[in-house]
Every structure is written in structure tokens, then in C-alpha cells.
Specification:
Layout: E1 13-15, H1 22-27, E2 32-35, H2 39-50, H3 52-60, H4 66-73, H5 81-94, H6 123-135, E3 137-139, H7 143-150, E4 156-159, H8 181-197, E5 200-203, H9 211-215
Parallel strand pairs: 1-2, 1-4, 2-3, 4-5
Helix pairs in contact: 2-5, 2-6, 7-8
């Protein structure tokens, strides 16, 4: 459904809250800026863009089972971006719901997906993803600052923030201080800025009382 909003006449594709970047990988834009506040995610994408074959091989060598999962989860990698990327993707593919959540100390704490451990995508898909990421600009920072720095007329901006529901932290959030109610006003201001500059945007958000601040005056579906 979201793919239908993208037009071939659009300029570059900008995604402010990348996460899995599934729309980016589906649209396959030739020019893109991909951003997230999760530095582990962006670093892992950078490694994937440069070393897809070795990364896939290393991931395929680690068993998708509970002991291996908790051993890696308890062993953060410091100073080696490649090994950190291996750990990141392995935990992501084998954790509950494939999410990335940390505690207030910044430690990854999602349990093992005991009923359905994930599998690594086929090498062909892995290399295709790497090729798309290699053509994109990858950034790690505040969504508002990033978009205002990069957006130009005719660009397409996809905004898919974590859900801030009355400041109640939900299980799908990345971290303890990811995106809150106060950020909704900043997001609304950014939407106005994107429109004024002559670019297009799409926002994905949970249907809730907070949605009214974002949808008022705009087309919603």
C-alpha cells in the first residue's frame, strides 16, 4: 500500500526512522538517505553494504538455538564493526518478533524466539540489499535535523516513528528514550516544513488519540 505513494518522478527517497527499511528495499530508489538514531543498526547496514558475502557466511555458521543466542546477547562487541554487525543481525533474526529493544543501560534485552527462530535471507537477497544500501547515504541522528538538512523540492520523505502513546513505553521501541509525546509536535512541524519546501511525505502511525495532532489538515488513509 505505501509503495503506491512513490512516483518515478519523485526526487530522492528519505527515510528518517529506518528500522528494517522495508519500504526502501521495496521501492529500490536510485538515490536515498536512510537515517536512524540506532547507531548499531546504521553501523550494521554499513557493514552489509560493503561485505555482504562474508557477513552472510559468518551468520550462516552460527546455530539458531537458545544457548548461542544468549551467549551472543551477553557479549557486546567493542571496536570491531564487522563482528558487531554479525551479532546485530544474528540477534535480530533470532529474537522475539525480530525487534531491537534495550534497557535503560543500553543493553539489548529481547528474549530468544523459542517458537520460531529466524533464518538468514538467501545470499541473492542479501547481496541485492547490500547493493541498494551501497548507493544510499546512511546517517545516524535526530530525525528532524536530518530531514531538514537533506530534503529538497520533489523529494519523497517517509516518516515511520516508534509509537508514542501517552508516554507509555511499548515493547516495540528501540530504547528507553527513543521517541515520546513531546516529539510529536516536532514531527508535525517537520511535516509542515516538508510541504512548504515542495516535497512529499508519508507518515505511518498507530491509530490513537495522539494521531489527531499529526493527521489534522492532511489526507489520511
Amino acid at each position: 500500500m505505501l509503495k503506491a505513494f512513490w512516483r518515478q518522478t519523485d526526487g530522492k527517497y528519505i527515510e528518517a526512522f529506518a528500522g528494517s527499511a522495508c519500504l526502501f528495499f521495496d521501492i529500490r530508489p536510485s538515490v536515498a538517505v536512510i537515517n536512524d538514531t540506532n547507531s548499531d543498526l546504521i553501523s550494521a547496514y554499513e557493514v552489509l553494504s560493503r561485505q555482504p558475502y562474508l557477513l552472510h557466511h559468518q551468520l550462516s555458521e552460527i546455530p539458531s538455538e537458545k544457548d548461542s543466542y544468549y551467549r551472543l546477547r551477553a557479549s557486546p562487541v567493542i571496536g570491531d564493526k564487522f563482528l558487531a554487525a554479525v551479532r546485530f543481525f544474528y540477534l535480530n533474526r533470532n529474537c522475539f518478533n525480530g525487534i531491537y529493544r534495550t534497557n535503560k543501560s543500553g543493553d539489548f534485552n529481547v528474549p530468544f524466539a523459542s517458537s520460531r527462530a529466524g533464518t538468514i535471507p538467501p545470499l541473492k537477497k542479501w547481496v541485492e540489499a547490500a547493493s541498494l544500501l551501497a548507493k544510499a547515504t546512511l546517517t545516524c541522528g535526530d530525525f528532524d535535523e536530518m530531514v531538514r538538512r537533506h530534503v529538497e523540492p520533489n523529494d519523497f520523505v517517509y516518516l515511520d516513528p516508534p509509537y508514542a502513546v501517552s508516554n507509555r513505553r511499548v515493547f516495540t521501541q528501540y530504547s528507553a528514550n527513543e521517541f515520546g509525546i513531546a516529539d510529536l509536535a516536532r514531527l508535525r512541524s517537520l511535516m509542515n516544513f516538508i510541504d512548504e519546501i515542495g516535497a512529499t511525505f508519508v507518515v505511518s502511525y498507530a491509530l490513537s488519540k495522539e494521531t489527531a495532532l499529526l493527521s489534522d489538515g492532511w489526507h489520511s488513509a
